[in-house]
Amino acid sequence: MARSATLDMTQGSLSRQIIGFSLPLMFTNLLQMLFSMVDLAVVGRFSSSAAMGSVGSTTTLIFLFTGFLMGLGSGVNVLVATYFGARSEKNVRESVHTSFLVCLIAGFLMLALGLIFARPLLELLNTRDDLIDGAELYLRIYFLGMPAAALYNYGNGVLNAIGDTKTPLIFLSTAGVLNVILDLVFVIGLGMSTDGVALASMLSQCVSAGLIVRSLMRSKEIYSLSLKEVRFHKDKAIHALSVGVPAGLQNAIFSVANLFIQAGVNSFSTVVVEGNSAAGNVDNLVYSVMNAFYIACSSFVGQNYGAGKSRRVLKSYLLTLCYSAVAAAVLGGLFLLFGHQFLSLFTSESDVIEAGLARIWVMCFSFPISATMDCTTAASRGLGKGLVPMIFVFLGSCVFRVAWIYTVFAHFHTIRSLYMLYPFSWVLTGAAEIAYFLYCYKKYVKPLDASHAAE
To answer: What's the whole-model pTM score?
Structure first.
């Protein structure tokens, strides 16, 4: 099997391979977060704080839809990685072409749902009257890029599965530069507001999707995309969906819980809403770095599981768990020290900055805990087990958080009591995810061929 621009994760130093694999992913994820950050910074600085609040109020809803597409990308990643590790060329090709159709259909479905339910969902969130019109306009334009987002996540999943994380970084960098330029042109040059930054984001998504699909179509490798071969292979579609749908629903579950959290935030003043929107960028930046290790976890676990190498499966999980927790601790410490300076990038209003710092102080101490949940879920997903981890996330990060809002938060009704639900839910869900992964490892991975396990 030809392997240019690919990485054989089944042999060699895991620690060096994981770091080398994850670094481009970190930059890719950070660029994706910068799309949203630039939107907030431009409208906050060159339009108004109200416009920034409108854009920030859409974050949870946007992730409700894009998170599902990211989950499908995870399903593509696991499917291709498993067959790639097993050296099954026919299955790799069938997986690539089936997944293309699955993701494209999902993208248009998200587009339709987003356009239909944009306003009702914003009203369900109790979005403030002075922010809701701008938020609705932003969402409707942004949702036009859902098919492109689906195709980018598809291509990213394929390339990550075979170990190529540099190509998506190059494409996203190109789209990111375009996004910044268009933000400035539309908002400063043409006097647009939330509509301008939404249009810039949508167009940049189309560019990144076009570049990554074009790359797959021009490739001569076994994972190349040919429109003539695009068709459903039932077993591959079921495999991809069995991992991708639970992963996507898991992301959606977070968003559903966050809808209640956002409603809780909206019960405070506009200043608190704006401060929360600005401080949410800290979460996004830290998660984007940690998520690189989660993708690495799924990819490395998937390839080594397909190759029948049980010890490398376990070591891949432990290393990525350690790396993600350490990264969270370091970044959290930096934002604790420089949180005021960071928030000043988005607003010059001191009361908004103080409101944002309230979130930063709680979250930055808690980020490492979340690795126990997310990294372990990624490891189970790499083994093709997505349903049970999704149920744990539903119970721990949705049911528990909603219950917290109606009990603890309802009693104290302080913004700090609202933010504290994050670390508590991470502890509970993380413990359940670890127990399940260890069960799956002993039952499905440990019995693998001893000659592979001995490596």
So the answer is: 0.77
